UniProtKB/TrEMBL annotation:
Pfam families: BNR (PF02012). This is Glycoside hydrolase family 93 protein. InterPro entries: BNR_rpt, Sialidase_sf. The lineage of its organism: Eukaryota, Fungi, Dikarya, Ascomycota, Pezizomycotina. Signal peptide: none annotated. Transmembrane segments: none annotated. The keyword Hydrolase applies. GO terms for molecular function: hydrolase activity. Keywords: Hydrolase.
Length: 314
């Protein structure tokens, strides 16, 4: 088994934290955070050729605080949701109010309006980070994110909506709640009837990648285990996708001594069989499956968001 990477990545836009989703019409809607004259601007970008080219499309929101970590998902009714961190900062950049916000678009991702605020905190030490949306098998909407309890303690959180993101049930923690660790940067994918969540953690020292599994679509979680450790180096910010029945976990690491670069692990929990270098420079990667043989890996390369197609060759 090997991966073939496209020789040249496509350009999604200037900014950071790129993510994307397949729309019902077959196009791909991307999102990223741009920076303009002191403002953070969450924008959308669109591809109609499977990620080979992108055009600017819409603006979700903008603000002078810490607005970042956008994630997009289309609902069965055609509406598109974008969730992101939406934090108020003081004059020195310190956080004074944290929020996870959800906005909605009814026109394919061009125009947006506020929908809900699933969580917020006025405690500067209790940050809210990296929201991730998925549709559950029962039709409900799941929102995953990271919640800081202290500078040394962060849990993985799940909230559920039964009305398309307008209102949310009480939160539940499913990793980190029984230990003092910084679990974060959640990514999720299904494999063989199980839901797999990958995350970074400092449980045993320096940041590395672990996962947990759920046999019931997120109701219960167990089997906390290692995905990848980079020795004395950092492995962080994972995301995951199912490509033809195997999981591909992207992450950033400085283990090659060249600054942060992108790699991925291929396999399944308990059996990661292949490590692939995706790029010498890159951070905050996202990944989405294109078909049962290929995926689109998105990343920030020195302030430019790019997308590279990778193909699994068996």
């Amino acid at each position: 088994m090997e991966f073939i990477c496209a020789s040249e990545p496509s350009h999604m836009g200037r900014g950071t934290y790129p993510r994307a989703t397949r729309l019902h019409d077959g196009s791909i809607l991307g999102t990223l955070t741009e920076f303009h004259d002191g403002e953070n601007v969450v924008v959308t970008t669109k591809s109609t050729d499977n990620g080979n080219t992108w055009v600017p499309y819409g603006e979700v929101t903008r603000g002078f605080g810490d607005v970042d970590n956008p994630f997009v998902l289309q609902l069965p009714n055609g509406e598109i949701l974008c969730t992101f961190r939406n934090h108020t900062t003081n004059a020195t950049g310190g956080h004074i109010h944290h929020r996870i916000t959800v906005c909605v678009s009814a026109d394919g991702g061009r125009k947006w309006k506020f929908l809900s605020m699933p969580d917020e905190s006025s405690n500067p030490a209790r940050g809210l980070w990296e929201p991730f949306l998925r549709l559950a098998k029962d039709g409900s909407l799941q929102l995953y994110y990271s919640k800081e309890l202290s500078p040394s303690d962060q849990d993985s959180i799940l909230q559920i909506s039964h009305d398309g993101g307008k209102t949310w049930d009480d939160e539940s923690a499913f990793t980190g709640h029984d230990m003092v660790t910084r679990d974060g940067m959640l990514g999720l994918a299904e494999l063989n009837g199980e839901l797999v969540a990958v995350f970074e953690t400092d449980e045993d020292g320096i940041m590395h990648i672990k996962c947990v599994t759920s046999p019931d679509d997120g109701k219960t979680w167990s089997n906390r285990q290692l995905v990848y450790r980079a020795g004395k180096w950092t492995a962080a910010a994972p995301q995951v996708a199912n490509i033809g029945g195997v999981l591909v976990v992207t992450f950033q690491t400085d283990e090659d001594g060249e600054g942060m670069g992108l790699k991925c692990m291929v396999g399944k929990p308990g059996n990661w069989v292949l490590k692939v270098k995706l790029g010498a420079v890159g951070v905050w990667s996202g990944i989405m499956a294109l078909d049962d043989r290929s995926a689109l890996v998105m990343f920030d390369e020195s302030g430019t968001c790019k997308a590279r197609k990778i193909t699994l060759k068996r």
